[in-house]
Amino acid sequence: MSNSDEGQGATIYEVAQRAGVSIATVSRALRNTGPVAAGTREKVLRAVEELSFTPSRLGVSLAQGRHAANGIVFPDLSGPYFAEVLLGYEEVAAELGRSVLILSTRGRAAVQDLVRDLVGRVDGMVIFGRTVEDALVDEIVRSRTPLVLLARDPVERADAVSSENTASAEALATHLLGHGYTTFALAGDDDRGDVTQRWTGVRRVLSGHGIRPPAPLPCELTVEGGYAAGRTLLGGNPGGKPAGGRRPEAVICADDQVALGVILAAEELGLDVPGDVAITGWDDIMAARHARPALTTVRQPMRLLGARAARALDELIKGTRTVPNSEILPTQLIVRSSCGSHPLEEK
Amino acid sequence: MSNSDEGQGATIYEVAQRAGVSIATVSRALRNTGPVAAGTREKVLRAVEELSFTPSRLGVSLAQGRHAANGIVFPDLSGPYFAEVLLGYEEVAAELGRSVLILSTRGRAAVQDLVRDLVGRVDGMVIFGRTVEDALVDEIVRSRTPLVLLARDPVERADAVSSENTASAEALATHLLGHGYTTFALAGDDDRGDVTQRWTGVRRVLSGHGIRPPAPLPCELTVEGGYAAGRTLLGGNPGGKPAGGRRPEAVICADDQVALGVILAAEELGLDVPGDVAITGWDDIMAARHARPALTTVRQPMRLLGARAARALDELIKGTRTVPNSEILPTQLIVRSSCGSHPLEEK
DNA sequence: TCATTCACTGTAAGCGCTTCCACCCTCTGT
DNA sequence: ACAGAGGGTGGAAGCGCTTACAGTGAATGA
């Protein structure tokens, strides 16, 4: 720490000159690749210290032909779901010595270009659901960029990690049937693959019990979207009547945020939850536990999802594994009070 | 789209060869820098198309001496606060043509090295609160890397963006006094600069009313941390009695997550909120509105915080502005029911 | 004592791009 | 008809690093 103003960073040449050696030796000394005499190493390290030298990442990457970074594309960062996944992803990536570049697509005009740019900056990518259109996904796969698809049905020659949807949806629907409900509504459908799977599970159970499954009411997967959907489904729309003419006994929501919005709408319409209408979510975000009433939902392992994606990507990048792999993580039905009263309520 | 297997991406040399021109011309044609005959441009573009050429980001960056990317360091991505800020940040950064690299420090061993690595990958950095120790911040400043500090007291020669804390804390405390409370507890103190400012505001008001301000009970700024703090403050600790010997009438929490935790603890201890104890948060995260009871809190413009930081950083990087700047965004007291009953309750 | 070996070190060729500079060749103005 | 002005282009020098490859000298074994 001799120089308090190091300016814009020294290069390996200056270090070499100061240490009286060649740049090759400096590189070797720093990366422990190839032999370096103890004395020489000493001199190099001192010069490095004195100049507070840090190798230029750009130079290193260009020479090595790798970025030591990977990217992730998601629709939105608002709401806990994606944040949690990102958390798990970043954690593992860091552990594996990779930086993380993020790209959120919501409301973005030139998604294609942004994604292409991102691809050029990383060794591998994770893409969430249907944020990127199929043609581009295909282009990425063909460019041999390691790719992991998250929460989406697999694609040829790319990995996929997602959490179980259909079976847990069946469990959820079965539970609701156990409450005796016979009229249902589905809120939220964003063309997201995982949501579609959930509806499939629900439909299957309802059909199996002779109930004609309702068409999902599309809405944005946010509290606001859920609120709007809630007004429509529960009768607050201009017509004063619910869509189907009759108010459903239970509203199954695509995720927790939608459910929270529907609860707000119900409250505003003077309906009691779950007395007048049962409401369920999906994800088990923090607010689900703290909501009034607490939300019955399906917990998915959000962090783990990100973590697994990061590991899968690492294998692909390192070439440890070359055959594509598809992983499905288990979920868990969490019964709280929003779906109706229970003798012993889970907290 | 002639070739369905492009392999690992063509270089500018191959494009040049195919177009029958020099790489200099290809570069000029692509970046519109310098004159290129119409016919030539045509040939180049065709070759680019045929090879589906994308300039290597590494090459471009190395030649231009810029990354077109910036970084952000935050303690944790769990919880809505940081996610929201990140959202605003990434949005503006993308708009300005910069990628975003993220680094979360919680539970990370070699933070220093990770941060240094990050610095080497970007044109500028945003650092949250006290995630990075002062010496390193100083080192970054000296290295002339554009730097914006978020939610933290300014440092010489670096920008700072934060939201107002002290005055709104005074408003909050004043409001609570208006309810007639005389005994208070403060929950949460993570050495975060912004929290300290909040306590300062609260203390000032309490002192001004002849109330001896309590020492904050340190706890992690999470729901779990808040729960633990709540048990201690409200009497659920092994001793069976609150810390001060007497249960406080109001618990002012460092943020909403802590408040939610304290509410859980209160509930578990059979206490009514706000009947037996009033509780307030800070941030106005989504769950605050949906909690039972709904949380009185101070809303801070989380997205805007990120957005402003991104813009400030951009000015610094572009050199549009060279003098450091410090910006403080306004906050707003949101009164809901957790602090006591009100004639007309805000929703 | 001499041919080998081997620990060290330097030279230089990339990695893929941008951009200064020089060059050539049409157009102008006179 | 001729100097001068540009438009259009290629050559080549970087940007900062890694890493064959080719030395150098000292130590080894016979």
Q: What is the CA-based Rg of chain A, rounded?
A: 26 Å
Strand order of the largest sheet of chain A: 2-1-3-4-5-10
Helix-strand topology string of chain A = HHHHEHEHEHEEHEHHEHEHEHEE
Helix percentage range of chain A? 40-55%
What is the residue-mean pLDDT of chain A, rounded to a whole number?
Answer: 91
The biggest sheet of chain A amounts to:
6 strands, parallel
Distance between the termini of chain A: 56 Å
Low-confidence stretches of chain A: none
* Chain pair with largest interface: A-B, 58 and 59 residues
Find the structural class of chain A using helix and strand composition: alpha/beta
Q: What is the count of DSSP helices of chain A, taking H or I runs of 4+ residues?
A: 13
State which percent range the strand residues of chain A make up.
5-15%
Number of strands of chain A: 11
Label the overall shape of chain A.
elongated
Oligomer: homodimer
